[in-house]
Amino acid sequence: MYGKGIGPQGLGTSKNNGYTIGEGSGKGCGCSPLHKTAAWTRKEGKDPKGGLNAKGVASYRRENPGSKLQTAVTKKPSELKPGSKDAKRRKSFCARMSGMPGPMKKPNGEPTRKKLALDKWNC
C-alpha cells in the first residue's frame, strides 16, 4: 500500500520540497495530509554562510511562541562595545557552540554547519 507509486514527494526523501506526509505534530490546517514544514528546518530558512536567515528566525518564532531567538551578531569583536548586549550574546554563543561535539569539516573537505556558524559569529 505505501510502496511504489506514491508520487514524486516520496516518504521522508530530501526532494519533498518542504512537505511532509501524514499528520505529524498536528500542525497545519488538517484539511490535507500534505503540509509544509517550517522554513527554519529547510534550506530557504538557513543562511548559506551559517546559521538561520531572517525568514528562518521568523518561522522558528512562529512555531515556538515566547521564543526570543534572534539573528547572529555578525559585527567583528573590535566593532562591538565591550560589555554590550551584542558582545555578551556573541561571547556566550561562541563559548557554547565551540564546545559542541562534531567535526568542523565534512569528509569531502567542506565546512560543516557548525564551522559556518562559528565563522559567522566571528568566534
Task: Give an overview in words.
The structure is a single chain. This protein has two domains: 32-71, no CATH class; 73-123, no CATH class. Helices cover 26% and strands 5% of the residues. The protein contains three helices and two strands. It has helices at 54-63, 85-98, 113-120; strands spanning 19-21, 34-36. Strands 1-2 form a two-stranded antiparallel sheet. The longest helix has 14 residues, at 85-98. The radius of gyration is 18 Å and the shape is globular. The model is unreliable at 7-13 (pLDDT under 50).
Keywords for this entry:
123 residues, mainly alpha, two-stranded antiparallel ribbon, 3 helices, 2 strands, 26% helix, 5% strand
What would you say about this model in short?
This protein has 123 residues and is mainly alpha-helical.
